[in-house]
């Protein structure tokens, strides 16, 4: 069962971020391009961001990016969000990348500002305090793969197609791809993939370490989503403060030398010592029972 954020109704329906436009430029009504759903029952703590721009294959257009930024800003303050899962509401595609039709209408200054905004979006995803998972059930090209790279974990259908293909369009990755791909795969392999603009299947991406899991696609076209949700369910029972601090320690530590990283780990550990969850974990171990973490 799903609980929809900011709605008092029990019905499942899209959540519209504050300030999102309710109509298209021609005055016709349109659905939100980003929907946010919080799962209930045993999945409580998992929140989904659903990308739903079917005509443009979830391309990163201006409205799409605005709604996604607003959703992230609101969710960042919600302590009940223990895992944030990105998935597509459009069958066969995760995110097709930048909206080149919009980009064609821009002058050079506008293009620069647009790319800077996309880079900021990916940084917001990467800095989200709770673990993030990208469920890639279809195509993830250019900015679409950069969005997935900004997530902590990635799950792909074996038939999904992904790649940083910007050089085939006369561009280079500009929303974090040149920085996150080498940190994920190593410098030489990242250069090869970016220089060639090569496309990978989900199976190939898993073999390289680009995705955590690759699964056979099902008839509904959402096998990666189901595997990502299973992965989120494994995270849910763990102490949420410890998980969040673990994310900080890893992310910050990977940017510095190991001695500085050890200091960062120490700072994070010190912040975890006073928590109720740490005491609960020790009590549960002593009493030989499952812990009941509350995030305090």
Layout of strands and helices, then pairs:
Blueprint lengths: L1 E3 L29 E6 L6 E6 L10 H15 L6 E6 L4 E3 L4 H5 L3 H19 L5 E5 L2 E3 L1 H8 L2 E5 L3 E3 L13 H9 L1 H10 L3 E2 H7 L4 E3 L7 H13 L4 H14 L4 H15 L3 H12 L9
Parallel strand pairs: 3-4, 4-6, 5-7, 6-8, 7-9, 8-11
Antiparallel strand pairs: 1-2, 2-3, 9-10
Helix pairs in contact: 1-3, 3-4, 4-5, 5-6, 9-10
Can you describe this structure in just a few lines?
By secondary structure, this protein is of the alpha/beta class. It has helices at residues 62-76, 100-104, 108-126, 143-150, 177-185, 187-196, 202-208, 223-235, 240-253, 258-272, 276-287; strands at 2-4, 34-39, 46-51, 83-88, 93-95, 132-136, 139-141, 153-157, 161-163, 200-201, 213-215.
Description of the molecule:
The protein has 296 residues and is of the alpha/beta class. Helix content is 43%, strand content 15%. The chain has helices at 62-76, 100-104, 108-126, 143-150, 177-185, 187-196, 202-208, 223-235, 240-253, 258-272, 276-287; strands spanning 2-4, 34-39, 46-51, 83-88, 93-95, 132-136, 139-141, 153-157, 161-163, 200-201, 213-215. A seven-stranded mixed β-sheet has the order 1-2-3-4-6-8-11, sandwiched between helices. The chain has a four-stranded mixed β-sheet with strand order 5-7-9-10. Helix 1 (62-76) runs parallel beside helix 3. The longest helix is centred in the middle third of the chain and has 19 residues, at 108-126. The radius of gyration is 20 Å and the shape is globular. 39% of the residues are buried. Residues 1-23 have low confidence and may be disordered.
